[in-house]
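To whoever is on call:

I kicked off a structure prediction for a single chain this morning and the downstream step that reads the tokens threw a length-mismatch warning. I double-checked the sequence; it's 333 residues and nothing unusual in it as far as I can see. Pasting both halves so you can look.
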Amino acid sequence: MSLEQVAKRARVSTATVSRVLNGLGVVKNSTRARVMKAITELNYHPNLHARSLAGGRSRTIGVIVSNLDNPFFLDIYRAVETDCHASGYELVVANTLYRSEQLASSVRLMIGRRVAGLAVIVSEMNDDIVRELSESAIPIVFYDVGTPGGNITKIRVNYRRGIEKLVDYLIALGHRDFGFIGHHSVLAPIDERRRAAFDAIHAACPEAKVRFAADADSLEGGSQAAIELLSSGAPPTAIICVNDLMAVGAMKELRERELRIPQDVSITGFDNIKLAEFCCPALTTVNIPRDTIGHHVFTSLVPESTPTSTQGKELIVTPELMVRDSTGPARRA
């Protein structure tokens, strides 16, 4: 089935069919509906690769993330997807599950697809991949790694400032016995939150106690890390979790041990995914604006989409504390 046959069925020019397919130009709603009806009736599937070659450039954006099971990454993907669809771009996504070998494979597959730009929103980055992408000819967005300039845009979240706001709040509530739940502590962008928490706690209160446990980045991982943390003695008065997903898993373990939240143990997350607002009790967390990050990704990869391109710059995102019901004054000894 060809573009010409679609145009003939819809009684329009091939240029009009192309504009409808690419979301470009002004096409009357009635004409657009007629073209889409013809496409459906003829079961037409455009050759995206051929369209890219004919147009001189690809209209596909690539996004690689560490863990699509974590709503944090899914929210960023959806934000990029919204901008892509509004501008006539397609979006392809790859999921690495924090495996560096999968990241390398996904990067090469994306470049092989001739994507117009690539966002690499991962924690398992290594120098070889950074160098390979920096030497490529396409726009690249890195997350918390790399050096901005040229084709490289860097989005950096000020995790340390977000953690400091969280710790200051917990210290003000009288907490001096802390637990920290994390995952993949060998990966620097993730371990930054743990190091920031330890530094902030000891700076504010040198005599404070801090314990650490880690497991997989999942609800089950949060539960397992809580088991490890709680087996090391009396429960801490506050548990800081590296993200909301693990915090919700840890909350389940606290409830099963009949520990009240926050009367016995306060618990916090990080990211402010939608689940944080709807779990019970609602989770105190630190908001990272994923819609803003997704928009930065698109405007950096498609600089002509906005009069103020962010390509080649470092974009700093400052998290904000979100106080909810899962935190309260430290329990008395």
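Update from on-call: the warning came from a stale cache, not from the record. Cleared it. Sanity check on the structure: The chain has a mean pLDDT of 90.
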